[in-house]
Amino acid sequence: MYFQLMASMMCANYGNLEKEVRELEEGGIDSFHIDIMDGRYVPNFAMSLNDMRYIAGAATKPLDVHLMIEHPNNRIGLFLSCLRKGDTVYIHPEAEYHPSTTLQSIIHAGMVPGIAINPGTSVEMVMEMLRIVKKVLVMSVNPGNAGQMYLPYVGKKITKLLAMKEDMDFEIYWDGACSADKIREFAPKGVKGFVLGTTLLFGQGKPYGETLQAIRELRF
After folding, report:
1. Which helix (H) or strand (E) is 20 found in, with range?
2. Greatest CA span in the chain, whole angstroms?
3. Sign of CA dihedral 191, 146, 101, 88
4. Which DSSP string do the residues of 57-109 spell out, in sequence order?
5. Axis-axis angle for helices 17-27, 49-58 (nearest 10)
6. DSSP code per residue over 37-63
7. What does the pLDDT look like over 134-178, one tens digit per residue?
8. What is the sign of the dihedral through the CA atoms of 164, 170, 175 and 178?
9. Whole-angstrom Cα distance, residue 160 to residue 12?
């Protein structure tokens, strides 16, 4: 069974980021997940524009940029200018007055438009956006910090989205507290990819290639 694996780079070792990127690519990662936090939309600061620019230059695999910032349209050009056509940019609809305008800027730049849905955001609140985007990043934890507990009611939200994805032409991705049992449960149902952080990928004491191979060989 094929599913995509994305490395949550806020969990990487910043003492040697070039080595991290190289070893993840050699290990078979599908893309690099970049969490940008402004300390306002979420109560934390994470990766910066320069972090993203560096990884974009060092990596050959695509980037998935998750903008956890207020009013992303005010600065969207700064982020888009550092990326390559085909990279993905997610915004949170609640963070913008007119999210469709921001998504249109992402589309015009040749990037893949996406939205991220917080645990407390209903599918009904973002229904119109589902007709614009190509990717939906479902947050299984409240955004802002790694290592949080899974919120079980998110599973019902994914079930709703799975019923809509063919008609509205989008794919579903999982972000937060991604464990092996979650991949076993939701990959067969149609979730396309999973963001891997400290639960499965980083800090495991094994080469990334070995860890990623074990994930891909999970029994369903």
Report:
1. helix 17-27
2. 45
3. negative
4. HH-SS-EEEEEESSSGGGTHHHHHTTS-TT-EEEE-GGG-SSHHHHHHHHHHT
5. 50
6. EBSSSSSSB-B-HHHHHHHHHH-SS-E
7. 999 999 887 755 555 667 788 999 999 999 999 999 999 999 889
8. positive
9. 33
User: Tokens 């802002």 map to which residue?
Assistant: 144
Which is nearest to 21 in space by CA: 61, 81, 65, 79?
Answer: 61
Q: Is the pLDDT higher at 116 or at 140?
A: 116
Structure confidence by residue, pLDDT tens digits, 13-64: 999 999 999 999 999 999 999 999 999 898 889 899 999 999 999 999 999 9
Residue range 54-78: mean pLDDT, rounded:
96
Spatial separation of the C-alpha atoms in residues 175 and 74, rounded to whole Å: 25
Residue type, 68: M
**Two tokens, residue 40:** 């306002």
User: Cα separation of 65 and 47, whole Å?
Assistant: 10
On whether the CB atoms of residues 46 and 38 are closer than 8 A, the answer is no
User: Are the beta carbons of 117 and 151 closer than 8 angstroms?
Assistant: no
Kindly report the average pLDDT of the chain as a whole number: 94
DSSP sequence for 168-213: HT-EEEEESS--HHHHHHHTTTT--EEEE-TTTTTTSSS-HHHHHH
Counts for the chain of helices (H) and strands (E), in that order: 7, 8
pLDDT for residue 133 is more than 80: yes
